[in-house]
């Protein structure tokens, strides 16, 4: 049970600070808790989504920061943001697909996508469902892949 909470905490930290690699932590955790793979997947997924909600929330309030607001008024930044707004506007499946792919693959980086989702005012439920599914599937692949590898090595 302690490992569950450790993975949850590390996952929140990883979501907020991308230099912490939750996939490596999960791989190590699998070696310490064989038979508890699902608990590790759930802990990592919940932790990541808790952290990414903060990135999303930050995106919804990004205009309040004077420096960011000045940057967003520059023609290139404004054009880029307008382009993304046009792509997302009225296309929930495109938006959901992009969020899912980013959550699963890490490309584009999910922290960046979370902020962009907040800026574009993507409904929170779309962000949560796609992120949870994408991150959960990603961590399932990592945990069960590592579990299989450790089983094969022993």
TrEMBL record:
Tell me the organism: Nocardioides exalbidus
Q: Give one Pfam family.
A: VTT_dom
Transmembrane annotation, as ranges: 6-26, 38-57, 107-129, 136-153
Provide the protein name: Membrane protein YqaA, SNARE-associated domain
Span of domain VTT: 24-144
Q: What InterPro entries has UniProt attached to this entry?
A: VTT_dom
Keywords from the UniProt entry: Membrane, Transmembrane, Transmembrane helix
Record bears the keyword Disulfide bond? no
């Amino acid at each position: 049970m302690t490992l569950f909470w450790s993975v949850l905490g590390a996952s929140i930290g990883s979501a907020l600070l991308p230099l912490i690699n939750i996939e490596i932590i999960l791989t190590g955790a699998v070696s310490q808790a064989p038979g508890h793979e699902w608990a590790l997947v759930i802990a990592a997924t919940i932790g990541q989504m808790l952290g990414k909600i903060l990135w999303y929330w930050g995106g919804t309030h990004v205009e309040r920061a004077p420096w960011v607001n000045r940057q967003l008024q520059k023609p290139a930044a404004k054009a880029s943001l307008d382009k993304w707004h046009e792509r997302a506007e009225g296309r929930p499946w495109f938006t959901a697909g992009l969020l899912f792919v980013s959550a699963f693959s890490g490309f584009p980086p999910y922290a960046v996508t979370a902020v962009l989702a907040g800026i574009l005012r993507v409904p929170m439920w779309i962000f949560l469902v796609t992120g949870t599914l994408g991150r959960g599937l990603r961590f399932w692949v990592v945990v069960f892949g590592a579990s299989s590898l450790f089983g094969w090595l022993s």
